[in-house]
Design brief:
- The protein is α/β, with parallel strands linked by helices and about 400 residues long.
- It folds into 2 domains: about 240 residues, Aspartate Aminotransferase, domain 2 (3-Layer(aba) Sandwich), CATH 3.40.640; about 140 residues, Aspartate Aminotransferase, domain 1 (Alpha-Beta Complex).
- It is about 40% helix and about 15% strand.
- The chain has 12 helices and 14 strands.
- Strands 1-9-8-5-4-2-3 form a 7-stranded mixed β-sheet, with helices on both faces.
- Helix 3 packs across helix 4.
- The longest helix is centred in the N-terminal third of the chain and has 22 residues.
- It is globular, with a radius of gyration of 21 Å.
- The structure holds pyridoxal-5'-phosphate.
- Pyridoxal-5'-phosphate (PLP) binds next to helix 3 and helix 4.
- One of its GO terms (biological process) is polysaccharide biosynthetic process.
- This is dTDP-4-amino-4,6-dideoxygalactose transaminase.
- It holds the Pfam family DegT_DnrJ_EryC1.
Length: about 400
C-alpha cells in the first residue's frame, strides 16, 4: 500500500507535470512575473468557469477576504457576523480592519453558520455576514441572502474551502459557491481544492463598481499610475502560480469528483457503525433527499472529510490512527470565541453549545484526489476497530 498522506499533491502533479513544467519555463523565459498574460488568462478562465463577471486575483485567501471588506467600505466599529467554527483567517481580517467580529454558533449537521444565530446577533451596527462554506459544503444561502436583504447587509462568502461546489436554492436555481453573495473570496493555498504551488487567492463579484474599486485596492489604491486615490495594499497573484492554476482549472471538476468518490466510500464503510456520525450532505440542496453524496450535483466538494465521534476519546483516536501510519486532523480544536486573540466579554458560552461540542468530537480523515481503495479500506478498518473495541 502507498503511504497514506493527509493531502497528496505529488500524485496530482505527476498527471499534469508536462504542461506545468513547460508553462513555468515559459513564464521564466518571458520574464512577465507579475500581472503577466498568464494571470490575465487565468482570471478570464475562472470567470467563465464560475459564471461570475469579475475575478480579481490576489496574493492569498486571507488578503482576498480583507480586500473584499475594504472594497465594501466597511468602517471601524461596523459589526461583521461570522461563524465561531472556522479557520481563524476569517475573523482575523475583521479584527485587523478594526471592524467588530461577532461570532455565532453553527449547525451540528452541516458545521456551517446557523441562520437563526445570525438573526439573533443582528444589531443596528451590523453591516455584513461572512458565511464560510466549511469543508466544501455551501452554507444555507437561501436563509442568509434573505436575512441580508431584510436587514440591508452585505454578504461576503468565504469560499476558500468550497471552490467548484454549487448551491441549489429552494426555487431550484443552481449557482456556484462564491457567486451568490455581494463579494466572495477564495484561496489557492496548495492543499485547497484548486491549489497552486505557493500562495494565491482571488476575489469574485458580479458588481462592476465594486470590482473596479477592488482592482485599485489590490494595487496600492492606484487607478492611474502613481495616483493613489484610496489606501490600498500590495496583493498580487504571480504568473508562475497563475500558470499552475491554468493547468489545474480544467481538472477541477474531476478533482472534486474524486474527492466525492472517496467520501462515498468512507460513508459506506461507516454505515451503521455506532458512535460514528458521517458528514451530513444537506438534502434540501441536493437531488437526493437523504444523506447521500449524489453524482448529479456538486453540493459538497469535500475539502475535508470530517466525522463526529460520540462516546469516544477523540484525541486517543487521533493518536491511534497516527500510530498506524494514518494522518488525520482536528479542524478545529478551539472555538474562535475562546481563542485568546478573539475573546470578548460580550460572548455568552450558552450561545456556543454546538461549537463547544464539535471541537471535542470532530476528526478529519485523509482527503485528496489520489486516495485509493486499499488506503480507504485500511483507514476505515482502523477507525472502526478503535471505536468498536
Ligand atoms: C485557507 C483558508 C483561508 C485563508 O487562505 P490563505 O490563502 O491561506 O490565506 C481563509 N478562510 C478559510 C475558511 C480557509 O480555509
Amino acid at each position: 500500500m502507498k503511504k497514506i498522506q493527509m493531502v497528496d499533491l505529488k500524485g496530482q502533479y505527476e498527471q499534469i507535470k508536462e504542461r506545468v513544467d513547460s508553462s513555468i519555463l515559459d513564464v521564466i523565459s518571458s520574464a512577465a512575473f507579475i500581472n503577466g498574460p498568464e494571470v490575465h488568462s487565468f482570471q478570464k478562465e475562472l470567470e467563465e468557469y464560475l459564471d461570475v463577471k469579475h475575478v480579481i486575483p490576489c496574493a492569498n485567501g486571507t488578503d482576498a477576504l480583507q480586500i473584499a471588506m475594504m472594497g465594501l467600505g466597511l468602517k471601524p466599529g461596523d459589526e461583521v457576523i461570522t461563524a465561531d467554527f472556522t479557520f481563524a483567517a476569517t475573523v482575523e481580517v475583521i479584527a485587523l480592519l478594526q471592524l467588530t467580529p461577532v461570532l455565532v454558533d453553527v449547525e451540528k449537521d452541516s458545521f456551517n453558520i446557523d441562520p437563526d444565530a445570525i438573526r439573533k446577533a443582528i444589531t443596528p451596527n451590523t453591516k455584513a455576514i461572512v458565511p464560510v462554506h466549511l469543508f466544501g459544503q455551501a452554507a444555507n444561502m437561501d436563509e442568509i441572502m434573505s436575512i441580508a436583504k431584510e436587514h440591508d447587509l452585505y454578504v461576503i462568502e468565504d469560499n476558500a474551502q468550497g471552490i467548484g461546489g454549487s448551491y441549489k436554492f429552494n426555487n431550484g436555481k443552481v449557482a456556484k459557491t462564491g457567486t451568490i453573495g455581494h463579494v466572495s473570496s477564495t484561496s489557492f493555498f496548495p492543499s485547497k481544492n484548486l491549489g497552486c504551488y505557493g500562495d494565491g487567492g482571488a476575489i469574485f463579484t458580479n458588481d462592476d463598481d465594486l470590482a473596479h474599486t477592488i482592482r485599485g485596492i489590490v494595487n496600492h489604491g492606484m487607478y492611474k499610475r502613481y495616483h493613489h486615490d484610496v489606501v490600498g495594499v500590495n496583493s498580487r497573484l504571480d504568473s508562475i502560480q497563475a500558470t499552475v492554476l491554468r493547468a489545474k482549472l480544467p481538472n477541477l471538476d474531476t478533482y472534486n469528483d474524486a474527492r466525492r468518490s472517496a467520501a462515498r466510500k468512507y460513508n459506506k464503510a461507516f454505515e451503521g457503525i455506532k458512535n460514528i456520525i458521517t458528514p451530513r450532505v444537506k438534502g434540501n440542496n441536493c437531488e437526493t433527499q437523504e444523506n447521500i453524496i449524489c453524482d448529479t450535483c456538486n453540493c459538497h466538494v469535500f475539502h475535508q472529510y470530517t466525522l463526529r465521534v460520540e462516546n469516544v476519546d477523540r484525541d486517543a483516536l487521533v493518536k491511534y490512527l497516527n500510530d498506524q501510519g494514518i494522518p488525520c486532523g482536528v479542524y478545529y480544536p478551539i472555538p474562535l470565541h475562546n481563542q485568546k486573540a478573539y475573546q470578548d466579554d460580550r460572548y455568552d458560552e450558552s450561545n456556543f453549545t454546538i461549537t463547544n461540542q464539535l471541537v471535542k468530537e470532530v476528526i478529519s480523515l485523509p482527503m485528496h484526489t489520489e486516495l485509493d481503495e486499499e488506503q480507504i479500506n485500511f483507514i476505515t478498518k482502523n477507525v472502526i476497530d478503535f471505536v468498536t473495541k
